[in-house]
Amino acid sequence: MGFSKTLRGGVSSVFAFLKETLNFMFPACCSVCGKLADADDRFSQYEEFCMAYKGVPSGLHICGKCLSSLAPNEPDRRWFFCLSDPYEGDPVPGLPLYMPLTYEGVARSAIPAVKFGKKPGLANLMGCLLGTCLKSESVHADLIVPVPLSSARMKERGFNQAAEMARPAAAVLDVPYAGDVLVRTRNTDRQTELKGSLSRIANVTGAFGISEDWDVRGLSIIVVDDVATTGFTLHEAAAALYEAGAAKVLCAAFAGNRQIKNAEVY
Asked: Which domains does the chain have, with CATH numbers?
């Protein structure tokens, strides 16, 4: 028994030494900016969450500058109206939008890194932050659902960044995650490639429906997307939920470029 214990201790020491040597020879790079990750010691709480949530380490590394830049705005600067340009006859007027970060700086570079750099693990971090912020505001719901990707975009990307954010947000809030509630009824163009409000409205109008497997009547639902600019995509997703009988819908995005806040919270 003593020899076995000594042997295990010796093997552990060797592995620890090898790990330290490799970290010294090949220092980890920040998953956001690519520079030297010097803040992993301040990242331990998220690692604990990942182990509890996914059962595996996050695989992410971060530098102090990026970690500090991901600090959320003050609570009174997180609530907005979903549409940046409201229109007469809106079927869901006054729809609330919650965004903890402004789409600038690190957030502006991190979100494209998720989508085009194929980093779903980074989206998980954003979802954890989003969920933590919502929890601090005492927000609760019956379900959390992501905005679905079109089949063409899903095939191209291999994952839905909104889903990768919504799952950990749901885990933080202890709210059921339902990834198949909303469905795309047709493929749409990228909103970022369209100019003008009218073209963006037309692009997503009627683009969402509710799965036949779900009955959302009377439910309170949080709809999650990665970023909100004009808000039309989240607006149309929420409109589909209300049409199917949902009692209350909150739109939530990790970041956005909105300036005018909404004094009415969810």
From this structure: 2-68 (no CATH), 73-256 (3.40.50)
